[in-house]
What does this fold into?
Amino acid sequence: MTGVNARVGMMSVWALVGMTALGCGRISPGWRAELDDTLALYGHRNWIVVADSAYPAQSRPGIRTVATGAGQLETVEAVLKAVDKAPHVRPIIYVDAEMRHVPEADASGIGAYREELREILGDRPVEAIPHEELIAKLDEAAKVFSVLILKTELTLPYTSVFVQLDCGYWSGDAEKRLRETIGADKGAGQGPQKEAERKQEKKERLKQRLEQKKRALEDKAQEKRGER
It folds into this structure.
């Protein structure tokens, strides 16, 4: 009976471990390799989020959460280095707007975190957006595009870093010029039709002026007949 009880006990332990893993996300010691593999597949409009430990698991099928078991700053630095090395993408970085307002008295260590994060981000452009709006952005993006969330061990609020991927070899300015060129080409294609419309409008205006002159002459002739 002792052997049976021992086996039952071990089965219970493994069942509990499995339930915990399902409920809280799996710890992935190979998250760096997973990041590299995912980044090779990701491109324009995909997202990578480095999240603090209380970040919620979102229900969209397009959002995948990996528990790294690593520190927040370590993970942020790894993500940015990986993106910088990838020739096909570049980062658009967002942080929670609330972070800069969190007081040290309520979250010990937040000041040091802000300073260290600032050093890691360097001169990269960063936009601060309210947390709920960022979650809504992810939810909307995940309807069509995949999102990877790397969950860390950090226990400070509003510290997540959101990286939206953009095309690394095609800039926003280049896209704007392309759209302007396409618009100009469409306008040029409509040139003959527009010219015909302008000529028709000119004829109509000329016709109206001639009719007005004709009526004026008829009115004058009628006045003269009346005077006689």
Summary: Helices lie at 2-24, 31-41, 72-85, 110-121, 131-141, 172-189, 191-227. DSSP finds seven helices and six strands in the chain. The CA atoms of residues 99 and 220 lie 84 Å apart.
